[in-house]
Amino acid sequence: MTPQPPPQPLGLLPYLAAGWIFLAGVYGLVTSRDSVHAIGCLTVVQSGTYVLLVAVGYRRGGTAPYFTDIPAGTPVVDPVAQALALTDVVVGAALTALLLALVLQIAKRHGTADPDALTGLKG
After folding, report:
1. What per-residue string of b and e applies to 19-33 under the rule 16 or more CB within 10 Å gives b?
2. Which residues pair with 68 in a beta bridge?
3. Is domain 13-110 given the CATH code 1.10.287.3510 in the classification?
């Protein structure tokens, strides 16, 4: 059995893409004038973390991390990064659903989803 070269990590491009997606979401979040739009931008910010996690765990030439049918020494991608990305997707979906439900209740009670139009708490 000949020794295989170590897996090569990705270049700088996926990290730049993750940063660009993150910054685009933050820009939309800062300039948002509507709560639903802000939640959508928060989802875009979280999508940047998906790209970052997948980029961190990827190895060029690596296969899926099923260890039962591949020979020893075969390069694989990092299964921990994949599990974290999947967990991030689930948490993001739950957070988005919760925030949209809260905005729906606020719009029902106050008649608007504009954060600037909402006043202090009413007793």
Report:
1. eebbeebeebbeebe
2. none
3. yes
Evaluate whether 62 touches 77 at the Cβ level (below 8 Å): yes
Indicate if the pLDDT at residue 65 is higher than 70.
yes
Q: Can you give 46-67 as a three-state secondary structure string?
A: HHHHHHHHHHHHCCECCECCCC
**How does DSSP classify residue 8?**
B
Tokens of 123: 């007793």
Position 86, amino acid = L
Q: At what angle do helices 35-57 and 13-30 cross, to 10 degrees?
A: 170
Coil, helix or strand at residue 110: helix
> Does the structure show a pLDDT above 70 at 2?
no
Please, what is the angle between helix 35-57 and helix 79-110, to 10°? 180
